[in-house]
Amino acid sequence: MSTVEGQPGAVGTTDSDGQPRLRANAMGWIAAAAIGAIIMSPAGGIYFNFGPMVQKAGAVVPFIFLIALLASLPTALSFAMVAREMPSAGSVYTWIWNATRPSAGLFVGWILGGFYLLAMIVLPGIFALFFNEFLNFFGVSTGYGTWAAGVLLTTIAVVLVDYLGITITVKATIIFMVFESAVLLALAFTIFAKGGYTGHISTAPFNPGTAVGGGAAIFGALIFGIQSNVGYDAIPTLAEETRTPKKFIPLATIAAVVTVGIYWIVVSWAFSQAAPVAEIDNLLSQGFTPIVPIAKQYWDSGDIIIIISAMTSITGIYIAQTVGTSRVMYAMGREGSIPPVLGRLNRRYGLPWNAMTVGIILTTIVTLVLGKVLGLANQYAWTGTMSSFLGLLTYFCVNAANIIFFLRYRRDRFNVVLNGIVPVIGIVVVVYILYKSYFASLWDAGWTYGRSVQLAVVVWLLLGITWIAVLRRRSPELFTRRSQVFDSGEPGDPGAAAGELAGTDA
Q: Could you tell me the pTM of the whole model?
């Protein structure tokens, strides 16, 4: 079967073989954009990246976020262009399969699966660190036990939200995102109102000439800015649950990137003038994020609000990331690329409960083990680095798919700018970040948090090649068909017709 039939408003709709499908028309573009935006995390981009960016280049953080937004747009546009042609819960996995060959799609699906599972594993450990900070605020001593309790607490919250329907998930996601964004924005406006530490607001943070270390420092800090933008890639996995996905998924993708990017520019402008660069450097050297001390300085004891907003922010990301991960696993499972049990839906809610359960169990076990082995403050650094490594490989493939698909199957609509220049720029940006952040710097970072990550990526890629070889022996028919694309029934739909995208290895 090459298409998935969507029924307006249906829950667990079925296809021709009687299997239930994801709930079609469950959300509009704003809800889809909210899922991507919460994974990008408006607050998290500041909590986790503002300090390192200041340390690299000084107070020019808003200028760097502006450049990061412009640098991320080409890949976001490639996501939008391909998603418009092939809406599917499998997203990049399906796109590469149909644009090139099933074996290439399977390999990219393996990379995407690793990226998304690791992105989940990163989250409960970070929540637990803030949970310990929350307990410390009230005088409670903390350690691995309370940290593990925090991991389980946020996981329970994810289960309660994600297992009861995509509508509840969307509502919870929006609530979490609005809360975290409003808290940090309120603090930013407080800083603006008080004129920062100098008593007046300056536009100097937008002047690259004021960067500490010049252009080289700006490019060094730009890595953190671009990494902040990871997350919008989950939006296309919602195609089969979004109204008129060929129209709304591209719109939601660009809207999430631009809106969150502008938010970071405004908020970082305030924070860049909240304290001297030397003071922020000093806090970082002591192992502190500068956001909480800044909140205490401008809001007195308001730092507890920042801790709570950080916890809700991470829980929101965990909820949304579980959605994206489970949809990709579901898409692969229904085609037999991975165990078919992962491609089954709960008939009442129309959700991939099996895929969600496997992802959450793996996340919980791996997080608890790494916390014990690597330490509470370090477990997320290793998984986060490997996740973003695989994520950038995925982004490279999306830009390539934009070029290849339109040249092979939409040559009459090939646009030199949108399907040529834009993806080439996206590829250049991705390759630059991969080289600077993951080949050169990780090799020089030693074994524990550097070369071991590189080795793990190589092992994961080799396992993917082995997995494809096993599939070719056990399920050769898998390589003779194309991956499923959602038929949204949109009028004038120029999408792929059945059989048009042969894309087989036969």
A: 0.85
